[in-house]
Here is the input.
Amino acid sequence: MKCSAISRVAIPTLVSLLFLALAAVADDRGEGPLDPSQPQGTTVNDIIQKFAAKEKEFKLAREQYTYTQDVTIKASNDAAGEGSFRQVTDVLFDDHGHRLEQVKFAPQSSLDSAGIIMTQADFDDIRNRLPFVLTTDDIGKYQILYVGKQREDELGTYVFDVAPKEIVHGERYFQGRIWVDDHDFQIVKTYGETVPQVHNSKHPDKENLSPKFTTWREQIDGRYWFPTYTRADDTLQFAQGPVRMRYIVKYENYKRYGAKSRITYDGQELSKGEESQPQQPNGAGSTAPKQ
Here is the structure.
């Protein structure tokens, strides 16, 4: 987000994640107490390798699904006022099996009424960082610190704090906490923010800040933990003054495109003609908050 009206960029460390861990307590809905003991019968590195491999399978599988992404953003600024942004997009395949995005509802944004401008980085974050995936291709870019074990609703999870090892110019990263299901070894919840957060008091037009967010996943087709709900409510400290940002992002109506798809799960190819099961409601196989 830019405040209408690259600079000082700090490279995050896992120590800096302490504030995220503390802040997560306020958004723990359904979490049990954190058990900091080491995992039994396995090693932390084995857990990381297993969930990174499963996350790669999940990422490939999600690319073979159609779904609807519904984004609502609200901004409020005591000095400027309030504004909102709404966009509903269908993620589909054309007749040749090529993936495409079709915007079906997008009223004119009024975020500028709150002094906010959506940047391309914001749209990229909504598409790629809010539904964060940490695969075997990406774990080398991150410091991954085991925090402990914790119940997440009815699930047993391993908890990790994650931060980029370094910031490469032009790249965006996730920094925060992830909860990994101890049975399926897939991420079921994330809490954190996109970095770098760019501050520039001398040139406010070059600032680019984004809110801390929580993304929940649900089990789809009894196999994959897909993101279904993201929420953010954070006050961004722009040089020109604080702005409260609220996000709601829903990922709905997942259906597998089976005509020409090839999806593997646990190393086995699934039937190409297999029909997708209805998306499960919040409850069993879900970490998402009840709406």
About this structure: The chain has one domain: 2-269.
